[in-house]
Hints:
The protein has six helices and 18 strands. It starts with a strand and ends with a strand. A hairpin with a 2-residue loop joins strand 2 and strand 3.
Amino acid sequence: xxxxxxxxxxxxxxxxxxxxxxxxxxxxxxxxxxxxxxxxxxxxxxxxxxxxxxxxxxxxxxxxxxxxxxxxxxxxxxxxxxxxxxxxxxxxxxxxxxxxxxxxxxxxxxxxxxxxxxxxxxxxxxxxxxxxxxxxxxxxxxxxxxxxxxxxxxxxxxxxxxxxxxxxxxxxxxxxxxxxxxxxxxxxxxxxxxxxxxxxxxxxxxxxxxxxxxxxxxxxxxxxxxxxxxxxxxxxxxxxxxxxxxxxxxxxxxxxxxxxxxxxxxxxxxxxxxxxxxxxxxxxxxxxxxxxxxxxxxxxxxxxxxxxxxxxxxxxxxxxxxxxxxxxxxxxxxxxxxxxxxxxxxxxxxxxxxxxxxxxxxxxxxxxxxxxxxx
Length: 375
């Protein structure tokens, strides 16, 4: 590593610094060279693996400038030998709010796309064959119904319409899971999803999920191209956070739930003689105008698979928005497409984190270890 640097209060300013890292992907080994210039936090310099620290952990809003990652991958006969992408750091709408121990148990990052004509179930199986080293466990499931969010100044919100495709061709969703069951990639004719599920580790943060998602999307896009089919055109992004609060953690009865999320429920519940409140369930919908997105907040009672006798409060937050891409451009270059998806996911992340923070009580935030960085 070589760099010219001068210390400043927030960190260091470098003209150019390059780190290298090696790793494995679903179909081979790869080497990543991270070249950075500008201002960065000081602790990146002491990290054991600065590439992993920066790409998968922080994307810190205190780092200014541009970084470029060049990926040299070997043993990949159907890939280009070198790939270079450059993203401005401010494309990430970094949230200043973090939690040490959030009640988060699952994150799903998804893109809905126009199904490539000619794609069938055999192709889904062939795609898994290329992902098998990363996702060795596979099973089939019913497809996730397609949804269609409609936005506009004169549009009255209604629950998103389900899109039903009339076809005689069989359909399914392929669920590919990592050996530790923490990560899952799901693919069907019109959707690709990457899930993180809490097993033993805390959530590795949004940037790590994005890294997994964009690897899967790039692999899927290239796979479809190698079939000589038209590339999938992304239409809608979706981001879901699932939170789970077990009984005895902040609550003893459903009537305590407003003490956890006063931003959802306010006031007192009716006292019904001879009856007790057993649960609360509903859907709250917010819409963002800039950028355009819609957020669904759904609290409901539930139970865990590993402990069915344990009641839990589930809080699902799902953000959706349209993906704006220029279809007149050369569709063999996916840089603009990735930027459009990334911008949408970043918007959804900011919307979910800020809304969750506004809904939760001060006691709940303290329990979950909330931190806020002044903007």
